[in-house]
């Protein structure tokens, strides 16, 4: 690491009540020794300077923070708002709006409605069955 980067880092970390940079740091290489710098860094911090606490800070409860940020369910209010309205659009108009908003892809198309099958009735009558029985089995 270069000396200028080290100087800038120390300027950022120093207390605001102190002067700019230490005069020994501004002197150059001959004024400081590596052992002196290490000793200065290892020195016990000032008792009045604890950055972990801030004067007047209130400790927040984790439960209160959770309740603040918890998602709120608006379903009941939304349903009341929707049901409160009296105006109901015509079915033809709603179908037209849905058709306009529908895409051309097959996934956007509504499912085809299958035609209802009528229950198949027999074509033959009871008389036809008796006639067939007489011809086939030979009974009167």
TrEMBL record:
Region (Disordered): 27-56, 99-122
Any one GO CC term of the record: nucleolus
One Pfam family in the UniProt entry: AROS
UniProt main location, coarse: nucleus
Compartment(s): Nucleus, Nucleolus
Keywords: Nucleus
Molecular function, one GO term: enzyme binding
Family statement: Belongs to the AROS family.
Name this protein carries in UniProt: Active regulator of SIRT1
Protein source organism: Ciccaba nigrolineata
Lineage per the UniProt record: Eukaryota, Metazoa, Chordata, Craniata, Vertebrata
């Amino acid at each position: 690491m270069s000396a200028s980067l080290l100087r800038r880092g120390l300027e950022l970390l120093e207390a605001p009540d102190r002067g700019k940079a230490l005069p020994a740091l501004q002197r150059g290489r001959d004024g400081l020794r590596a052992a002196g710098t290490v000793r200065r860094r290892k020195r016990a911090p000032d008792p009045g300077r604890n950055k972990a606490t801030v004067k007047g800070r209130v400790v927040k409860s984790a439960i209160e923070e959770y309740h603040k940020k918890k998602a709120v369910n608006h379903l009941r209010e939304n349903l009341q708002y929707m049901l409160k309205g009296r105006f109901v659009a015509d079915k033809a108009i709603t179908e037209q709006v849905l058709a306009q908003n529908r895409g051309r892809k097959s996934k956007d198309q509504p499912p085809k409605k299958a035609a209802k099958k009528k229950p198949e009735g027999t074509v033959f009558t009871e008389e036809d069955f008796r006639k067939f029985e007489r011809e086939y089995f030979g009974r009167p």
